[in-house]
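Batch manifest line 455
LIGAND: calcium ion
JOB: complex structure
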Amino acid sequence: MKVLAVILAAGQGTRMKSKRPKVLHPVAGEPMIKHVVRAVSKLRPHRLVVVVGYGAEEVRRALGDEYLYVEQEEQLGTGHALLQARQLLEGKGDTVLALFGDHPLITTKTLRRVLDENEKENAAITILTFHPLDPRGYGRIRRDSAGQVVGIIEEVAASEEEKGMEEVNDGVLCFREGWLWPHLEKIEPGGKGEYYLTDLLALAVEEGERVLALSPEDEEEALGVNSRIDLARAEAVIRQRIRERLMLSGVTMVDPPSTFIDSTVQVGQDTVLHPHTILEGKTTIGANCSIGPGSHLRDSKVGDGCTILYSLVEGAVLEEKVDVGPFSHLRPGTHLASGVQVGNFVEIKESYVGPGTKVGHFSYIGDATLGREVNVGAGTITCNYDGERKHRTIVEDHVFLGSDTMLVAPVKVGADAKTGAGSVVTKDVPPGSLAYGVPAQVKGKMKSELEENHS
Ligand code: UD1
Ligand code: CA
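JOB STATUS: finished
ARTIFACT:
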């Protein structure tokens, strides 16, 4: 079957009370329409057209160039919106699947059923219907005495009695391609001058065509987002789906309701996510990690066996067996090599920290390169900013930085060197030497110092 899919997304969504186009409001970290596009793309449609209007450019930019777009200049209703796709689609397939950009919960499986049923039964139209707790805002399904669907009445046109009908239009409509286009032209404007796509059902029934209605397996799939209350409901459902997918793939979640994960996040096997943890954007977490409680990760890459406790991690890369927290902040450009330990109240940005290095307590490391097995004493700070420009600090392998060392960049501390507590390092410290004082002076070689102490 050659499927032609059309996603209607031209409306502003007045009930959202927002300047942003409705379909771009995020649900689980992605614009709501992306969830719809993903569900449809998995059907491998022959063509996928998005009808844009309000905020057209923004919607295009959010979705990218992979899809076809057509602009509906005036939002004259869903029937008029679908008609805009005619030039792109007429004669190009067997079945047209029309769906709305404000239905982020729809699944590929349900769409597949609608398509298959429409084809198998040679119907002109197959729709999805459901019974929401509150039918307000939806088009009501009209059935005849034999139980056959005979039409959809929109809320604005419905009588009080009809408003009491509990079965409503989900918003997924599937059409036999040859039947659709000529009939779409025949729709008359309804209340408020809009052309209702849903009027096609009555037309088909009049002509003796078959019209079918199916229900989604899970009624929550049918939720259409019109207000921010619906938006929060959709968010809750998608978040729960993501959590369930991850738990089934081997991730432990101590308290799923307080664990928020974007659909773009990946988490490895046997990792434990503790309560109040938020994982956002392009974050990937390896296996056997312990994340949280109280940790927030965004666009970060975490290797296997890491622990992150009560910390904020943004745009950072952590290799294996890295420990962070409690109460630390890793900012963009942080790269922690394997076995690094970052303790409490540490901030790091734009820095590489070599394998096995420890930054235990109250430090700021910015624009720095730290070698392997460096010991960064409590309170150590890179003074990277001179008021005008940022400068780099280099600390080579096996350096021991005494507590409260100030590294006034640009500056380099050579391998195996040591600084005394409270040093203000303004000049490079040669490898293997000891420096201390304010400003720090080189006071000899580490080896001889040690020998003196031992004698
Ligand atoms: C629509 C259906 C209703 C159904 C409900 C399910 C119609 C007439 N009504 O009502 O039967 O129960 O969805 O959620 O189809 N759009 C355009 N151009 C337009 C108007 C709308 O592209 O001129 C797009 C919107 O961006 C939106 C979708 O179509 O993504 C649905 O529009 P909306 O105004 O939300 O329709 P509802 O009143 O919810
Ligand atoms: Ca809607």
